[in-house]
Write a structure and sequence with these properties.
Blueprint: E1 2-4, E2 20-22, E3 28-29, E4 41-45, E5 55-64, E6 72-77, E7 81-95, E8 101-110, E9 121-124, E10 128-138, E11 145-149, H1 150-157
Length: 163
């Protein structure tokens, strides 16, 4: 059940005139008692960039962090599984096409993505990983994705327990 999903506002620091902004495209949810979950774990598919959606284990989140341009990061998505690529842009404002919405201080990664991958975790590492943020969009060719860094997520939702 969704319990927190901050609204967009023109009053955010850095929001361009005429737009509504946020620092993340993230919401907080509460699991029901009969929902299976594992705090600090990310489902892991059989390999990076191989198109597999078969879960073969998990990644253990050991920290939260940031990424730098040129660094290789990964994500796991419902549509394209585990993909990796390099961060190409860091802390840029991204306008949603045909809207008055701007996501402030977002990161872009050159890696495979597909419709349905939104909400997937973005991380650094291949076993014990550092959680970097939450994926929310991609380009039409499916070759780049954009994610909200954890700093923006926690700025809007408050401190989170992730591991």
């Amino acid at each position: 059940t969704e319990v927190s999903d901050p609204g967009y506002s023109q009053n955010k620091t850095g929001c361009p005139s005429g737009f509504r902004c946020r620092f993340s495209d993230a919401a907080r949810a509460a699991y029901t008692s009969n929902t299976t979950s594992s705090l600090g774990k990310i489902a892991k598919t059989t390999g990076a960039n191989n198109g597999s959606l078969t879960i073969s284990g998990n990644f253990s989140i050991t920290a939260e962090g940031t990424a730098s341009v040129g660094q290789v990061v990964g994500k796991v998505g419902r549509t394209t599984g585990w993909t990796t690529g390099k961060v190409t842009n860091r802390c840029i404002n991204v306008q949603l096409i045909d809207s008055d919405i701007v996501q402030l201080c977002q990161n872009i990664v050159s890696a495979r993505v597909g419709s349905g991958d939104s909400g997937g975790p973005v991380f650094r590492g291949t076993s014990n990983v550092t959680l970097l943020g939450v994926l929310w969009g991609g380009n039409e060719r499916g070759t780049q994705f954009v994610y909200s860094p954890m700093s923006g997520v926690e700025r809007e939702l408050g401190a989170l327990t992730t591991f």
